[in-house]
Write a structure and sequence with these properties.
By secondary structure, the chain is α/β, with parallel strands linked by helices. It folds into two domains: 145 residues, Molybdopterin cofactor biosynthesis C (MoaC) domain (Alpha-Beta Plaits), CATH 3.30.70.640; 189 residues, Spore Coat Polysaccharide Biosynthesis Protein SpsA, Chain A, CATH 3.90.550. The protein is 28% helix and 25% strand. Strands 11-10-9-12-14-13-15 form a seven-stranded mixed β-sheet, with helices on both faces. Strands 5-6-1-7-8 form a five-stranded antiparallel β-sheet, with helices on one face. It has a three-stranded antiparallel β-sheet with strand order 2-3-4. Strand 9, helix 6 and strand 10 form a beta-alpha-beta unit. The chain is elongated, with a radius of gyration of 27 Å. It starts with 21 loop residues before the first strand and ends with a helix.
Length: 363
């Protein structure tokens, strides 16, 4: 029977007059999933928007709401809170994890105060960021623990959201980088033929068995050119910054997906190498890649970039770094030896083109 109904099934406040006073605490959590354009604003432990520091404002709103819970929830008892603390942390999955711990010395618990605190903090975070993007999702709001009263309650997995338990890996899409100017090759590298067809088509065929979807990265002025016409495309939203622009454009277009990125100037790249990369994928890292064909440096143009790579790449771009290899070197990328290092040799000039044809036995 619901405790807030009397014997006539009418709403009634629970009579707590005969209960003893005891120390009571409650901890609640809310999770807000954020798109990359919002997490890109994260620095110095907070999101900084046009309205000011987002987390600080949300914390104050949550504390105020917790103190006003009985004014918001009709049958809650007004309680003198002895403590109310709210924390907000941004995790690698682009989730703002909000927690509110409330305490009182009284005859009833403070579960509703803790839940109200995280709920209003989440709504305030949304309000503070909606001018940047409305692609936010206020997700799980739940009680994590309560102590005092007749019984205690504790949930063991505090920080693991239900979504991540159900879907630990973002979907994997493919991206063929074909947007370069090809000045050294003196012709469009994307339309060169190594395998009996334009390189763009060959690369898409390599990606198809490993990815749910695959796209060509190109400039808008290339969209109708041979080697691009009629093929799925993502147009560069970040111009004149080389491969970094293509990778950022893809992650911005599909923020929930990871991208297996390959360059069209890797004519010796083969299916076993890509399969090994996918099998080595670590979605907890911002990227997974091989050591390149030269100097044991990470290869940024045959790599898997997770959704968490987007704010990291934007951060470096804001600091004037346009080289994705430098980002990989200074981030938590997973880097493995390539099973066939020769497959990562690129062809950027006519001499390298002829060498690749000879290696493939192509007349």
């Amino acid at each position: 029977m619901f405790s807030h109904l009397d014997k006539h099934n009418q709403p009634a406040m629970v009579d707590i007059g005969g209960k003893p006073v005891s120390h009571r605490e409650a901890l609640a959590q809310a999770v807000v999933r954020l798109p990359p354009e919002i997490t890109a604003l994260f620095r110095d432990g907070d999101l900084h928007g046009k309205k000011g520091p987002v987390f600080q404002t949300a914390i104050l709103a949550g504390i105020m709401a917790a103190k006003k819970t009985s004014d918001l929830i009709p049958l809650c008892h007004p309680l003198p809170l002895t403590d109310c603390k709210i924390t907000i942390e941004l995790n690698p999955e682009r989730e703002a994890v909000i927690r509110c711990r409330v305490a009182t010395d009284h005859k009833t618990g403070v579960e509703m105060e803790a839940l109200t605190g995280v709920s209003v903090a989440a709504l305030t975070l949304y309000d503070m960021c909606k001018a940047v993007s409305q692609n936010m999702v206020i997700g799980e709001i739940r009680l994590l623990e309560k102590t005092g009263g007749k019984s205690d309650l504790r949930h063991g997995s505090h920080v693991i959201s239900d979504r991540r338990l159900e879907n630990p890996k973002p979907p994997l899409y493919g991206l063929v980088l074909g947007g370069g100017r090809s000045t050294r090759m003196r012709q469009d590298k994307a339309s060169l033929t190594y395998h009996g067809k334009p390189q763009t088509e060959h690369c898409l065929e390599l990606l198809a068995p490993l990815c749910e979807r695959a796209f060509l990265s190109c400039r808008t002025d290339q969209a109708q050119q041979p080697g691009f016409l009629g093929l799925p495309q993502i147009h560069d939203a970040f111009l004149d910054i080389g491969p970094m622009g293509g990778i950022l454009s893809a992650l911005k277009a599909y923020p929930e997906a990871a991208f297996l990125v390959i360059a069209c100037d890797l004519p010796l790249l083969d299916a076993p190498t890509l399969t090994a990369l996918v099998n080595a994928r670590d979605p907890a890292r911002m990227a997974t890649t091989f050591k390149g064909a030269q100097k044991d440096l990470p290869e940024p143009l045959c790599a898997i970039y997770e959704p968490s790579a987007y704010p990291r790449l934007l951060q470096f771009l804001g600091e004037g770094v346009e080289c994705p290899r430098k980002v990989l070197l200074n981030s938590n990328a997973a880097i493995f030896p390539a099973p066939n290092p020769g497959s990562l040799v690129n062809a950027n000039d006519p001499e390298a083109y002829q060498e690749a044809l000879r290696a493939l036995g192509t007349p």
